[in-house]
Amino acid sequence: MGAEIEPTAVPLSHRVPDLGALELLLAVARLGSLGRAARARGISQPAASSRIRSMERQLGVALVERSPRGSRLTDAGALVTDWARRVVEAAEAFDAGAQALRGQRDSRLRVAASMTIAEYLLPGWLISLRAELPGTAVSLLAGNSSAVAERLLAGEADLGFVEGLQAPAGLDGAVIGHDRLVVVAAPSHPWTRRRGELTPAELAGTPLILRERGSGTRQVLDAALAGHGGLAEPLLELASTTAVKAAVVSEAAPSVLSELAVGEELNARRLVEIPVRGLRLGRDLRAVWRAGQRPAGPARHLLGLTRGTS
Fold it and tell me: 190, 184 in Cβ contact below 8 A?
């Protein structure tokens, strides 16, 4: 004999009246009138009558007796009302707990950001966020793009920001703006006096001062020069944009950095931009989060403040 197939159980949500219907029944019991109960619940009397009849059909018993003098509960209605009161009280406790969880979530925001975004864009966003959500405590973890991904995947950050060609593995994201990498050198460097543009091959073959592997800047540069012989061994690899800029200003060697990071130095002529022929060094700025987990609460609010970054 084959195994018996058990009948599929009807879901509880199909057998038990919804919360709104139970709250209406409690209002009828409290106010003694279907009309007054309807007004208390903010619905029309015909809608209230229809809802009570639907609940009676669902339960298979009469709950309310209607008369010109008002409405009163049947014996079954009085019993169902006692049960309904417990269900509504439990729902109120559930709602209070959920509000407490939301309050805990909304009281803090953990952000992880790559160095360029952390130094040059996030401060303005966070000032705006504080003006709109003054009760939210924000912590910032700054590192390269790989470190941002690790923080998010480990559950140590609620929202991240990276620069690069695509969102890191395991993360979803949205492009919030764009950036451009520029080749820069000290004013005394020979490149600043050359007549023609630098070629990609010349750039690739020159030992530069660069950010470390894993940074968004390095990823974009590696990809752009892959077809031109690849990057030469760097003269220096440094973990912060500020350190790279200081080394370039001191005339150690040229570098490739975010346009966002060197605007002040270019304007003051402490650094000079070196044009490169036919090399595309644009990159996207992305907000990122764990795959399948859309930002909520303050993280969602901050995401909205970042839109349209140039």
Answer: no
